[in-house]
Amino acid sequence: MSPRQACLACLERDPAALLEAALWVAAEHDSSVHPPLIMLQVKTLQQEVSAGLPMLPLSELAQPLLRRLNALGFQQDEYHPIRPQAALLDKVLERRRGQPLALALLTLELARGLSIPLEGVNFPGHFLLRVPGADHLLDPCGGRRLYPADCRELLGRQFGPQLQLNADHLLTATPKQMLQRLSRNLRQLHSTHDDDLAALKDAERVLQLGPATASDYLARATLYQHLDCPQAERYDLEYALLLSDDPIQRLRLTERLGQLHQPPPSVH
Fold first, then answer.
1. How far apart (Å, rounded) are the C-alpha atoms in residues 240 and 95?
2. Where is the Protein SirB1 N-terminal domain (predicted)?
């Protein structure tokens, strides 16, 4: 079974083996990564975290769990520009630094092992966590509580005042949505660091994990352009054009398609 197949198989379990799936993503980029062995190390970490938690009802332990992880050194990676290792879970566990989503995936795994209720929230620009039914969200980078006013402020810092907070920003994320978001993050990080072949693996995984957007096809088309694969680039540009409802984007896609050399006619 390939790392990609193992990743997808983890998501089909009930419940989904989310952290292991993310480790198989790392294994796809580095053949020395051995997810089953790392999962044993996570079990050891779970015991260490559990020993430092207060005696509270399980429903009140999510924030102490995040604070305990923070005290053990698990924090947001502040290095700029952000590197792929901030989203590769083997490196996050090794360095104890990562993007919010990567830290959230680890926290969700520990919460599951400790029977602490917790779910992911697909907040734009900064992945968040929530205890089901709570009136606040939790920042995976330390455990800070975020109420609606805090969420509006966070959204404004990420995207500016033109983007208003709405209910869609606070939806619970499914395991596949979280792995798709992780794959988008890695695609961007690998692209930024000029590793087009690694980014292409991530781009393909994005399309496998769920409904893709015009931007997802456009991102892969750009990678194919860099790799001098004009036919594959054309296919993705045409698909992006089909999915796009932005008039400006549609115009740019049409212009870009027009600049591509037409494939030679087949001979019958």
1. 37
2. 41-183
Distance, first Cα to last Cα, the chain: 40
Tell me the DSSP string of 214-250.
HHHHHHHHHHHHHTT-HHHHHHHHHHHHHH---HHHH
Q: What is the pLDDT along the chain (268 residues), one digit of tens a residue?
A: 999 999 999 999 999 999 999 999 999 999 999 999 999 999 999 999 999 999 999 999 999 999 999 999 999 998 888 999 999 999 999 999 999 999 999 999 999 999 999 999 999 999 999 999 999 999 999 999 999 999 999 999 989 888 899 999 999 999 999 999 999 999 999 999 999 999 999 999 999 999 999 999 999 999 999 999 999 999 999 999 999 999 999 999 999 999 886 655 555 5
**Are the beta carbons of 194 and 167 closer than 8 angstroms?**
no
Give the fold, CATH level 3, of 176-259. 1.25.40
Burial of 106 (0-12, 13-18, 19+ CB in 10 A): buried
Give Cα 115 to chain centroid, integer Å: 23
Full-prediction pTM beyond 0.85?
A: yes
The residue extents of the domains of the chain are 3-170, 176-259
Residues constituting the chain: 268
Tokens of 7: 């990743």
Distance, in Å, from the CA atom of 98 to the CA atom of 135, rounded to the nearest integer, reads 26
